[in-house]
Design goal:
The chain has 5 helices and 16 strands. By secondary structure, it is an alpha+beta fold. The protein has a domain at 149-256: Beta Barrel (Thrombin, subunit H), CATH 2.40.10.10. It has a 6-stranded antiparallel β-barrel. A 6-stranded antiparallel β-barrel has the order 9-10-11-14-13-12. Bound molecules: 2-acetamido-2-deoxy-beta-D-glucopyranose (3 copies). Residues 290, 292-293 line the site of one 2-acetamido-2-deoxy-beta-D-glucopyranose (NAG). One of its GO terms (cellular component) is extracellular region. GO terms for molecular function: serine-type endopeptidase activity. Residues 40-267 form the Peptidase S1 domain. It is an enzyme of class 3 (hydrolase).
Length: 314
């Protein structure tokens, strides 16, 4: 019997072999060696209740405040914007990654960050290669947690994509929401994008632009937050745009153009290869914070409450 069959059998024996139509609640937490395909997001139709997909994550600072949106890519690998996380990368003590969906079976869905990898050519506050690979100490637990695939489609003008966020960039307009929201945006050409920036924007070859929703209240622009097309991660919210003026396009890093950096970083993390073309942020040396403390921290802040989902059984 092969591995996948025996895994299925074990799941069924544990009475957690759920029919497809009930959505995805996994029988166990992600393990450092969980193969990516076992937890790949199956699209909107596979979500459970108000859960957008277990791959939507947020990064919190040591005080438990929101820093960046992020996407879950592999057991210990998270993708976000380099500009967003860079200011925190020298002192990662207490910086955590938290799932946005939480089932009643879960005791915690937060993980500590070990290191952050930046592309060698990334320059802080510039658009080129604005992507970072966050390496976690341990996987984000949770029965709803999933991975998202990297974009394989060529991003073209007029394509409609979905961006996720909490609205932290939009605080002048209204309070950020405790639950994540989504908004549909339309990709525009680089030419059109440059035209709308009066002061001669130097759009990078790794950037894509999308028109913002007209209503600023629907604008979502939290740095590092995912932009998805169908079931794939095609962009992350990049540097430079804001919700104050939605006539100005939003800028995203084109995941397809930075794919090699991500997969190289992944290989280096998996193989512990020290010769990768990436730069490494300072390693966190102190390991004093306990898991229960991290959990308590994530529990006590009502603003960043996770979406609660009621699974069939634990
Ligand atoms: C966007 O949000 C709406 C309302 O919560 C939901 O029905 C829809 O499935 C979401 N779209 C995606 C792609 O998650
Ligand atoms: C790393 O690169 C150096 C030279 O740049 C080489 O000597 C060494 O063998 C490489 N190590 C690995 C593990 O590839
Ligand atoms: C939680 O962290 C505080 C410092 O922030 C520490 O004093 C306390 O002992 C920790 N609690 C546990 C249960 O580790």
């Amino acid at each position: 019997m092969d591995l996948s069959k025996s895994w299925l059998l074990v799941s069924c024996l544990l009475m957690t072999c759920l029919p497809q139509s009930q959505g995805k609640v996994y029988p166990r937490d992600i393990h450092p060696n969980t193969p990516k395909f076992r937890r790949i997001w199956g699209g909107v139709e596979s979500n459970t209740g108000p859960n957008f997909g277990g791959w939507l994550l947020r990064i919190l600072n040591a005080d438990g405040n929101f820093i960046c949106g992020a996407a879950y890519y592999a057991p210990v690998i998270v993708i976000t914007s380099a500009n967003c996380i860079y200011p925190y990368s020298q002192s990662l003590e207490g910086v955590t990654v938290e799932g946005s969906a939480f089932s009643e079976c879960d005791r915690e869905n937060v993980a500590d960050i070990e290191t952050v990898k930046f592309p060698a050519k990334f320059i802080y506050q510039k658009l080129y290669m604005d992507v970072a690979v966050v390496r976690l100490r341990e996987p984000v637990k949770g029965r709803l947690t999933e991975f998202i695939r990297l974009c394989t489609v060529k991003v073209q003008p007029k394509m409609q994509m979905v961006v996720f966020g909490w609205g932290f960039d939009n605080m002048e307009m209204h309070m950020p929401s405790s639950d994540p929201r989504n908004a549909t945006v339309t990709i525009i050409s680089a030419k059109e994008c440059k035209r709308t920036f009066k002061s001669g924007l130097r759009l990078s070859s790794t950037s894509i632009c999308a028109s913002q929703p007209k209503n600023p209240r629907q604008c979502l622009y939290d740095g590092g937050s995912p932009l998805i097309y169908k079931k794939q991660l095609c962009g992350v919210v990049s540097f430079g745009s804001y919700c104050g003026d939605t006539s100005i396009p939003g800028m995203y890093t084109n995941i397809r153009r930075v794919r090699k950096f991500i997969t190289d970083a992944e290989k280096s993390i998996n193989g512990q290869d020290i010769n990768s073309s990436t730069t490494l942020a300072t390693k966190v040396t102190k390991k004093t914070k306990t898991k229960s403390n991290a959990t308590m921290k994530s529990m006590k802040k009502p603003l960043y409450r996770s979406v609660m989902v009621d699974p069939m059984e634990c």
